[in-house]
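Researcher: Let's run the pair from yesterday's discussion. Sequence first, then tokens, for each.
Model: Starting with the first of the pair.
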Amino acid sequence: MNRSTKTRYTIFQILIEIFKKNKNYENVFDEKISEFDFSQKEISFINNICLNTMRRSIHCKLILDKFAKKRLKTNEFILLSSAVVQIVYLKIKPYAVLNETVNVSKKIKVFPGFVNAILKNILKNIKDIEKTKIELSDFPNWFISEVNKSKNLDLSYFIKTFYKQPDLHLVFKSKEALNNFFGSHTKSSPKSAFIDDNKKVSEIENFNKGEWWVQDFSSMIPIAINDKIKNYDVLDICAAPGGKSFQLLSDNNVLLNDISKKRILRLKENLSRLNFKPKIYNLNALNFDEKNKFDIVILDSPCSAIGTIRKHPEILFKPTKPNLISLNKLQKSLLKKSSKLVKKKGKIIYMVCSFFHSETIQIVKNFLDENKNFSLEQYKTNSTIFDVNGLISDEGYFFTLPKKFKDFYIDGFFSAQLFRND
């Protein structure tokens, strides 16, 4: 294989592994690119094609259904989808895409004549194809079922933008650190900013100085608008990769815990770069010693992660749906455990990067029904943050779908503050 064919073959291998085996994208990506001696430019190319193929998988299905007279086999669908994305959406030279896609088809035993004919037909009709739009009915059935559980959930903007590339957002240790940051950026608060340059994180200004960390704007807000959290004992019970804890470490005694050893390693790397030295535990949160009590328990619970769809497009790309029954059960258990770890007059800050009713409002309402000694403490806008009124619900939840905020794409996120009354 020539190098160009190798890159396309690797793209196919990565996508088929995720699709067939329900694997995590980052793990598969790291494994597959190590099989060949790719340059950094080639690695970036592979990553770009893979991510955009997953982001545009619904578009690709609609397009290919128009041009294939038979139901496509999995190998055919994956190979042709990556080619459609390159030609239609990334505007890569059609001749190169067609030629290399045919080369890969021979290697994976997909009939080259069929691939060639489909792609040539698509090229003839590319102007019409570029106008392809999707509707809610085009999404997987499990997704439609979940969003239909919510009342008054306007998905129109989400459907138009869920496949867009996410924006990079940094949170700084202090106002001074942000004021001394000269990379191209747009402030989102006195201590945070969207980064305008498309750079690797490690190449962004002051990376080695440890003056900032990567954290989505939505994820930052629930802690940021709680600017009176100072001199408290805090437990971040599912802490990795650590963004919420990093927001609090300068002014509070924060204990970090996470069940995953791999995520703990990443957490420690971040803490070392930022020069924070808190205690870290590697425990199943459900086994945490209840003799220890905290003023605040942060529960950033495992969830479907549908709010991070732009960063993790494999969620809708995989034919296997998230196990929401299992996740809901875990969310309830973790919230119940958190209630036994918080001091009197303390509070739990419950969070998920989701907008599904079953992971957000339903979990909180069930908890409050079963725990009368807790009540909902409403989020309120804070003048130290740019106007976030549109991100706080009438009930006082922090709640947003993936959307555009101040001209930048932000994740979907939910948070509720649960105050212990007794």
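Model: Moving on to the second of the pair.
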Amino acid sequence: MAITIRYTKPTLIRKDMDAVLQTMVDEKIGPGEKRREFIKLFALYIDKKDGIAVRSYVDAITYSIQALKLEENSTIAISLFAPRVYEYVIKKLGYNIFLTDSDEYSQPKIEDVQRAIIENNVKALIVFSPLGSLYRNVDDYKELSIPIIEDVSESLASEFEEVKAGSLGDIVICQFEEDGIISTAGGAIAVSRSQEIIDSLKKETEKIRKYTDLPDMNASLGIMQLQKLDSTIARRREIFNAFYQSLIKGEGKPFLTGNKNFLANGYTFPVVIENMMDEALQFSEKMGIEVKKSFTSTIGYKYLDRFDLYPNSVGPLSRCISFPLYPLLKSTDVDTIEKVLRHIS
């Protein structure tokens, strides 16, 4: 059967397109006021102050690490669930990497980081929350007393009680690619509450801003999506909860632990397949659903044979698949995916 339910689809409506058209009519498509407005709105949404919006995810990561002003030969701790692009940037900047195992919430294991600070010269931590997951205790990470870069690309708007994605980072990064919670057709942002860090971020881009700043045409798209983000997330959560109930009825295992105090953002719907993953993928495809292995682009995907070092991470990294979840799913699409979820385990 041909694929009829795409894995991802940007949440674009006519108003979004009109906003982009207006920037073209105004003949202000390059970096300008819309970019600055978008930065301010995004920073406000996650309780930060200001920052930069750039044309690529790689730029946002690079400038954020440089803004920390780490000593030469410093080591940066990061979990195996982070995208491989982090490994590329960290090594290109001349720093070392310490890979942490994960805790039960797929976050960097505090004990690993504490030990690495003493034994491995770790001077900073990158927290990437995969597939809508979220840490539970901000204070535990803050007590590490090292700067933290938090990436909310997949966790934006996830919540646990009073904790919200973006609460942890001294610098918070978010990319806006086609599959993002917010999409500007590319680009990324890095924001902070610290004026010193904000100044450092801006200084890193100052000499080449013409070639790195996010254009207004893209920023206008981001502004429109940010303004309707609450309703977008509400729809994503509605679908997520429907999928979750179908999965557990069929005795499937969700990647995100069920908890009445945890509100996933509905970035996607990840499922841990205990056995017969290929069969689950084939069955989904037969039903016309595009499903993907969740972590093929992560740092940890090449360490699947290192259960001895990363016992909490290897299982999910090797056995998790993700189902489509986005607001533009039709009700018939939702029904089809629910049917598949009830039949896999």
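Researcher: Give me one sentence on the second I can quote.
Model: The two ends are 22 Å apart (CA to CA).
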